[in-house]
Amino acid sequence: MKIRTHFETMPDLYAKTAPTQAKVHGIPVVSFPFTVEFAVDQIARQSSAQVRYLHWAFTDPDSIPVCGFEWIHWTVANVPVSALAVSGDSAQSKIYEIPEDFTHYIDSEDALSGVVQGKTSQASRFVGGTDPAITMHYNGPQPPDVDHEYWLRVWATSEPLTQLHTGFWFNELTRALRLQKQAGQSEQSGHSGQWLDCDELRIIGRA
Question: Which Pfam families is this protein grouped with (predicted)?
Fold first, then answer.
């Protein structure tokens, strides 16, 4: 499994210098595009199960010296790969495309009705945000001091994380993934869902 973007530094549209029309309450809200590639033979070796769902988190660990915690910019769970466009589909690999502004596309597409977005750090009691446009949708990088390294982490599973609902927290996502992985490893669990793969990608956000 491999995450790819066409950039290493976050483009202006998705970050601090986004135009006014791409911001809500001064926060950039248009999410960036990326792809997730799977080697078909690798999946076959790992498990008889198929990749059916993607889940991801976009966070900023470099915010810890600034505010005391890793800033949550975007979390998404239960994206069915069947609802995503596929490029490079061959006997060797499949490349699933997450398009620009997917954070808002989720809200309007029937095929994505089971997808849930989690809370961002704007919803933290230390920030006090209340508008779902920024508390439960993508927030672009806005480092206040120096350039930050942001991390996009994507996980693939064969079953949805049914315990997650709109407005979940990042720790609930990681716990659900861990439980599904443990269930898939247990022959006695009677649970068919399996945690199949994960990857992470560093993206630079300019101050």
Answer: PBP
Look up the CATH number of the domain holding residue 24. Answer: 3.90.280.10
| Domain range enclosing 11 | 2-205
Q: Which of 140, 150, 146 is nearest to 61 (CA)?
A: 150
Query: What backbone torsions phi and psi does residue 74 show, to the nearest 5 degrees?
Result: -170, 130
For the chain, helix (H) and strand (E) counts, in that order, are 5, 11
- In order, the DSSP letters of 25-89 are TTEE-PPPPEEEEEEHHHHHHH-SS---EEEEEEEEGGGHHHHSSPEEEEEEEEEEGGGSEEES-
For 159-189, the pLDDT digits (tens) are 999 999 999 999 999 999 998 888 766 644 4
C-beta separation of 41 from 92 below 8 A: yes
Domain count within the chain:
1
Whole-model pTM above 0.90?
yes
As a whole number of angstroms, the distance between CA 189 and CA 13 comes to: 46
- How buried is residue 4: exposed, middle or buried, by Cβ count under 10 Å (0-12/13-18/19+)? exposed
Phi-psi region of 26 (alpha: psi -120 to 50; beta: other; left: phi over 0): left
Pairwise CA distance, residues 159 & 21, whole Å: 37
Q: Is the dihedral of CA 182, 195, 40, 203 positive or negative?
A: negative
